[in-house]
Amino acid sequence: MSPSEIRALRKRVDLNQTDFGEVLGVAQMTVSDWENGATRPSQTHLAAMYQWRERLDEMGSKEKEVDWTRKLLRSATQAGILAVLLRIFGGSR
């Protein structure tokens, strides 16, 4: 996933870099580095972002995309990254 694709995913779901990082279990500066091409995401983070984008593509509406992402953010805040990854990869929609 290119830096511009990462930025586009984040903007698609109306998250700032801090919240996007929270969902993925990384710091805001890490998201900034990814978006600027200074560093590349790990394979785990790349897989999560590809899955995230795939799920969004299946939803069919911006409102559903943003709502689902806000639920991911709440999960990340409440239970940590493991819960988020389980939601992304586990099929909960």
TrEMBL record:
Pfam families: HTH_3. Residues 6-49 form the HTH cro/C1-type domain. GO terms for molecular function: DNA binding. This is HTH cro/C1-type domain-containing protein. PROSITE patterns: HTH_CROC1. InterPro entries: Cro/C1-type_HTH, Lambda_DNA-bd_dom_sf. It comes from Longimonas halophila. It comes from the Bacteria. Gene3D superfamilies: lambda repressor-like DNA-binding domains.
